[in-house]
Amino acid sequence: MTELEKIAYAKSYIEKLANGINPLTNQAVPDDDLINNVRISRCLFYVSDILRRVVENEGISQPKIKPAKVPFQLDWEARGKFEYSEIPIPISEITRRINELIREENMKKLSYKHIADWLIQAGFLKLVTGDDGKTIRRPTDNGINIGISIEERESSKGPYMVVVYNQAAQEFILDNLDAVIAFIQK
For the residues of the chain, what is the DSSP string, one character each? Predict the structure, then answer.
């Protein structure tokens, strides 16, 4: 029997005692028994809960506290490893490729929404209302000039329009990544 199995076994005994049950016979103990004292019972439930956490956390009573994530940052060397696509790709793919370049495990990832919001603020994308009443992003004239366009794609639900970024637009985003980061930190 492993140590964690022993702890789980002890926990079951303590839990039965806390509930006024003799763990050896599975019979209820008399009401006037010491084990049915409210303070004793609460103490046993408390110990049972600690043992439950120890078992759940594989032998540790308190879960490991994850350190706070550091803000997104990407040095120039890592940016130089970005894999540009000759075929226009959506912003989500650009973001995925950027996030693959993160070396530090404890760093926040970049969200495609951060880039899109920066592009809107900088005047390369705009928000418009679609035929279905939903707000969608579309390139402005400035956006079209840097290589942002719209493509029709197919899904199981039928055709849809997606904003895509050619290689020049991808380069523009990487060249302005510091502005995106500054925008995020505001």
Answer: --HHHHHHHHHHHHHHHHTTB-TTT-PBPPTTSGGG-HHHHHHHHHHHHHHHHHHHTTS-SSPPPPPPPBPP---HHHHTT----SS-EEHHHHHHHHHHT---TTBPPPPHHHHHHHHHHTTSEEEEE-TTS-EEEEE-HHHHHHTEEEEEEEETTEEEEEEEE-HHHHHHHHHTHHHHHHHHH-
Total count of domains within the chain: 2
Q: Quick one: 117 and 157 in the same domain?
A: yes
127 in a structural domain: yes
pTM: 0.65
Q: Are residues 25 and 84 in the same domain?
A: no
- What would the pLDDT profile of 121-177 be if each residue is shown by its tens digit? 999 999 999 888 999 999 999 999 999 999 999 989 899 899 999 999 999 999 999
Q: Which domain holds residue 103?
A: 76-185
